[in-house]
């Protein structure tokens, strides 16, 4: 690539300041494809980074993707597929023959090849595996034998391991002398004769050390090993906590079987952190490329659960129909009490779910957290109660009504604060993902308690219009 | 460190299977501190990784932290502070003299030193800067001159840059011959005489190449450069998109001024992705170590905004007091319509906010996204309307009521779907963070539309008890 074609210069016409493909650029490519002008389409797409080509396919309407793929087929390599959204990729892969898929997979490290193959139907998977050469096939079959979302699926088999008696010079000569070794690695693992990792050596340390020094004296013995069956979320937290660039993956016998690098982890960290937003809202995976049928089903399930809880809350209102019939203003004000409790509960819930997910809230500090949230809820409840009490008195001039709504607001806020901590903490102890199911419980709690405390107090107090 | 002390063996008594400190371990340390048994406390804490020592302080009640810090003061190095939560660190740092802080900072790379110093009061900051030696001081002062949360604050000045005419052998000799160079780097930057980066070379490529080859032939010319004033969220997205391990930071003249490594980015990726959960819920930063006063203020602000919108929604109910007085059952059912709209709106909102944050939703596919969410909302609204309509008919035997509630449910769901896309997309175009303010607008919309459509249709239809 000559200097004139440096991507810094190019990207200005393709990408906006946030590294997103410009709509004009996407349209230009799709117009060329539609006009049958394959040459222009290719020329436009060719300078793009594989991640941007993947984005281009995601931004292309589904019905135009096959045409685009046809026009730029020679640019569609394994790296592009590895970067692509699962659903978009599946669509494109479906149109390829098993041999073509096998060709793509064989260009990639095991982890990326597995990502492409793991979502296929079993029949297609078998056909692709048959088309691979025996080495790649064995590596991918082994990866597929580990549970989904485990370290075994994430890891690549391509890594550099050297015996501890080697010197730095031996290791460098080995790397220079063996064409077939991987070129993408950031650390070298030092292993004992049983192939168990005993140390890790950053490449920078090797480069700064004279050839004659033993690897055992350069490597670091404290290392963070990843068990092959560890869940990817735990792997991500471990990379984050210990600031790892790469890590050795070991089998149950402690033998080195693979390597995970941080570039495969950043996607998971982002996904897992973003998942909580989506799960708390009951939006499933929230993948915008998911077939609409699946999205409707996921969201519907959650909405039906919520319909059930809304009916429970509304049955509480039903208990007080008599009071409401004589004093309709209560119906006007009751959504304020339940809604504000819901807002306060959601605040606490979001904080607690994040604190659990990031390992900041553990059994060591749960009691402290409950007390903290109770104090916050009491303070906010008292302030909100006072505000709404004063407002109600000013607007409606009814002293009794303003006392009742203020008291109900305080009660419901404290309920929200308590529920917002205890529900997710309890679910987490029961090994249920607190992000998925907490919101139902907490909003049911704040709705019912909001209606019950307000309408109940009003009835007890004998309020009437 | 002898083999017997390998952390794999040790950590079992300290960490649970999720790498969290065990409550028994935390108690043991704190009991020793309280009993004045400094030796035991030190012996327990000493084998911990800096990240775990930082966690230990976070899990220790605030009033006991000073005692713990005193007991293990010699283990409290810069790395521990760099890993610590901002608020917990500030507390501890406040108890140190400027010279002690300067000693800690001088052990660290610029980015970590800046993280410790940037949160201090201006007076204290000046005192610490005075206590640093001139080189460190200049580097930190320069970093502080960049905006908060920009690449300039994140980058470290310690990096390896070599001229393009050097061979691989020249570079290795340079690294071996200069003690003072940094040891933590993953790539070498090749620069022109004006110190502008013209290529990046992974260390693995250098190690696999004979000494005589020119660096210019090993390096990759396409490189992702980070402008020094880029926001950290954009930096994180760029690292993620292009799977970077490290990247050169350049000033406005294109000259190499620093380096950002991915281990500093993983925290940001996780924070930024998690922030959306907290912001959508109106929980501010959601930092559980924040002083309670600040937390109450942040959440209160949001709750008062919500109180305002709840009053708007309730004023809609107020318009229909007459209808409710004659038919109190409407008050029982109306929270179902508004609540279900709120749930559906929240689902769409969460999906859209995540899609915007991850650059999946851009102006290229906004129209498609609106149509997609409209279809989902219509499908879900029709199904939920049918369900609630049938349920209402079965329970209350009122055909007109069941038609009205079914129609209102459909109307409110479609409103929720439209609002859930259009509100965040519009805010984003106005450069307002959609995660912060969308929820207020969307729930106000679904509450008011829920009440208005249900009570309005009931009134038009002339429903009565």
Blueprint (SSEs and pairs):
The structure is a homodimer of 465-residue chains.
Chain A: H1 7-14, H2 23-34, H3 38-45, H4 50-59, H5 62-71, H6 78-83, H7 86-94, H8 98-106, H9 110-117, H10 122-131, H11 134-144, H12 151-154, E1 161-163, H13 168-177, E2 187-191, E3 197-202, H14 203-207, H15 215-218, E4 226-227, H16 232-241, E5 246-250, E6 256-261, H17 262-280, H18 292-319, H19 321-326, H20 329-357, H21 366-396, H22 399-429, H23 434-460
Parallel strand pairs in A: 1-2, 4-5
Antiparallel strand pairs in A: 2-3, 5-6
Transmembrane segments (chains A, B): 302-321, 327-353, 374-397, 403-427, 439-463
Domain CBS (chains A, B): 219-277
GO molecular function (chains A, B): magnesium ion transmembrane transporter activity; metal ion binding
Description:
Chain A has 465 residues and is mainly α. Chain A is 66% helix and 6% strand. Chain A has a 3-stranded mixed sheet. A 3-stranded mixed sheet of chain A has the order 4-5-6. The first copy, chain A, contains 23 helices and 6 strands. In chain A, α22 (399-429) packs antiparallel against α23 (434-460). Chain A folds into 3 domains: 3-154, MgtE N-terminal fold (Alpha Horseshoe), CATH 1.25.60; 161-280, CBS-domain; 292-460, Orthogonal Bundle (Tetracycline Repressor, domain 2). At the A-B interface, α2, α4, α13, α14 and α16 of A face α2, α4, α13, α14 and α16 of B.
Main features:
MgtE N-terminal fold; CBS-domain; 465 residues; three-stranded mixed β-sheet; homodimer; disordered N terminus; metal ion binding (chains A, B)
